[in-house]
Amino acid sequence: MQIEFSVTRAADAAVVAIPVEKDGIDRVAFGDLDAGAQALALAAARAARFDGEPGAVVEAFVATGTGVRQLLLLGVGAGSEHDYERAGGALTAKLLTSGTTAVTADFSALAAAPSASAVARFAAAAVMRGWRIDTYRTRLPERQKPTLTHITIAGAPEGSDAAWHAQDAVTKGLALTRTLVAEPPNIMYPVAFVERVTADLEGLGLEISVLGEAEMTELGMGSLLGVSQGSVREGQLLVIKWSGKGPGDPDLALVGKGVTFDTGGISLKPGPGMEDMKWDMGGAGAVVGAMKALALRGARANVVGVCGLVENMPDGNAQRPGDIVTSMSGQTIEILNTDAEGRLVLCDAITWVQRNHRPKTIVDLATLTGAMIIALGNEHGGLFANDDSLADQLLAAGKASGDLLWRFPLSDNYNKLIDSPIADMKNVGPRGAGSITAAQFIQRFVDKGVRWAHLDIAGMVWADKPGATFDKGATGYGVRVLDRFVADNFEG
After folding, report:
1. Cα(333)–Cα(309) distance, rounded to whole angstroms?
2. What DSSP state is assigned to residue 96?
3. Is the dihedral of CA 17, 21, 22, 25 positive or negative?
4. β-pairing verdict for 381-385 and 451-456
5. How far is C-alpha 398 from the geometric centre of its chain's CA atoms?
6. Are 108 and 154 in contact (CB under 8 A)?
7. Active-site annotation holds for 269
8. Residues 443-483: pLDDT tens digits?
9. Active-site residue identified among 9, 178, 278, 343
């Protein structure tokens, strides 16, 4: 989707969207539309009970001096950035496969000019809502193919170009994340993930390195490798470093769970719905997308992204319930359930990044537990943290970006639930508080003095119905909150 800014609306624009504030239909400036056309548009609004609610759309076709113009009244609500985001997504949803190729959104129609950041959020949502993956659809009917390719924003306030540059970086990172999550597991396995990401990030100034299973074996990463041992696909540790402030250790590490397909291993998942487990690498996908966004907008921060990439398969060589593995930290883990594998991947990745890059803050992301979906559904990601200030920063970033988070507790009483009688810990606790005990497990591998947060995003990376900025499928959740978190707290 191409976004262009213009001072005024072109006289020959065939498709025009006019933003309307909540209860503001009588204040709209229709520009060059004559009285008859305006009356028709207002009648259509009244007939549809349109009152400017964010994302509401009313369509009318009005006569012009040279033909017919398609006119869309587009609700922007109270004018918040989130309202403008909903409006931008609604505009694309309305026109994406309509046969229309270009639309002009005329913000000069509003009585009060929106902020540059609100307009940029509008444009970003329009682009995000247009993302699709049709790679494998060979018989897609013409009427279902996307046609909208160009959005012109007229009458935008000063500074919109600069605000859009930052948002555009996020949309490009988010598109990469969605693609990685949406690809089928026979295409997107650990080595293929690394190859795809390396090619996509080439030339952006990011340092990329990869550890294979031989290197990880030398380092004693028995926890991560235990998950991978049942697959014919070799596990990988992908490291992406951005040094926006110059040489030196990163202030922040982003660590992502990248289980490219999760059968549950020997503790096999039920067959129905198992196909969804291609998105069990959503945490790693979010880390990669965020690192791309930081590089594209030239973030003034030093950040390292680490993705633990494995495939969890049942096999004669697969990890068994009852096995004991030794993590890179030296701590031993009794495996009670091979389907509780994400935490086994994360713990070695976190140990590795602490030993090699010494970050003061770590945020890990993982589609970790079904219990999180039971608790929060598909509206919030779960947040766990060992530091209140870090939790507050992430909650604020989530609220500002639209990637909402909700904080859960940690305590020693929960921690005791994963003590093992035969090893340092077991990889699952009792049925209750499953998301919390998973977070307590990961916390055992965080060094003293390091601020750490765990985001359990199991309910957020995939959607069964369209949202404001996404269609059914991969959402790209995590990219926006991480980018905003870095912008607000690590760029001086």
Report:
1. 20
2. T
3. negative
4. antiparallel
5. 11
6. yes
7. yes
8. 999 999 999 999 999 999 999 999 999 999 999 999 999 99
9. 343
Here the tokens at position 440 are: 């307590």
To the query of whether residue 358 is one of the catalytic residues in this protein, the response is no
Phi, psi of 322 (to 5 degrees): 105, -20
Q: What angle do CA 99, 101, 107 make, to 5 degrees?
A: 120
**Average model confidence (pLDDT) for the chain?**
97
The pair of structure tokens assigned to 231 is 């697959």
The pLDDT tens digits for 309-318 are 999 999 999 9
- Segment 287-297, tens digit of pLDDT: 999 999 999 99
What amino acid is encoded at 177 in this protein?
T
Are 350 and 446 in contact, with CB atoms under 8 Å apart? yes
Among the listed residues 22, 132, 196, 269, the single catalytic one is 269
Angstrom distance (rounded) from CA 254 to CA 179: 20
Euclidean distance between the first and final Cα of the chain, in Å?
32
> Residue 369: what residue type?
T
For residue 184, is pLDDT > 80?
A: yes
Main-chain phi, psi angles of 72, to 5 degrees: -120, 120
Q: What length is written for the chain?
A: 492
**Under a CB-based contact definition with an 8 Å cutoff, are residues 366 and 342 in contact?**
yes
